[in-house]
Amino acid sequence: MAKRLRLMGSAEIRVMLGGVSRQRVYQITNRRDFPEPVATLQMGNVWLAEDVERWIAERRPED
Fold first, then answer.
1. How many whole angstroms from its chain centre is CA 58?
2. Is the pLDDT reported for residue 63 higher than 60?
3. Higher pLDDT, residue 30 or 3
4. Considering just the CA atoms, what is the radius of gyration of the chain in Å?
5. 17 vs 1, 8, 41, 42, CA distance in Å?
6. Cα gap 39→52, rounded to integer Å
7. Cα distances (Å, whole numbers) of residue 14 to 3, 39, 44, 51, 57
8. Exposed e or buried b for every residue in 29-48, given b needs 16+ CB within 10 A?
9. pLDDT on residue 2
10. Which residues pair with residue 48 across a beta bridge?
11. 13-51 tens-digit pLDDT
12. CA-to-CA distance for 12 and 25, rounded, in angstroms?
């Protein structure tokens, strides 16, 4: 069985970061150390969910 491709847009990233503003998501996703998007659609960039989750985990460790 093929592995499902999990994608994430800026709205999902907002939720994962605790509801930050759209402007803040734009700033974060344009950082040099943020993962590259896997595609650019008319609605905007999309990223692999695992790349975004890893990036967040590395920078926001759980207490």
1. 13
2. no
3. 30
4. 12
5. 32, 13, 22, 23
6. 14
7. 25, 18, 14, 15, 15
8. beeeebbebeeeeeeebbbb
9. 77
10. 7
11. 999 999 999 999 999 999 999 999 999 999 999 999 999
12. 10
Block residue for tokens 């999902």: 12
CA distances, 30 to each of 4, 17, 34, 36 (Å): 26, 15, 7, 9
19: left (phi over 0), alpha (psi -120 to 50) or beta: left
pLDDT reported for residue 3: 82
Q: And the tokens for 46?
A: 């999309």
Residue 60 gets which letter from DSSP? S
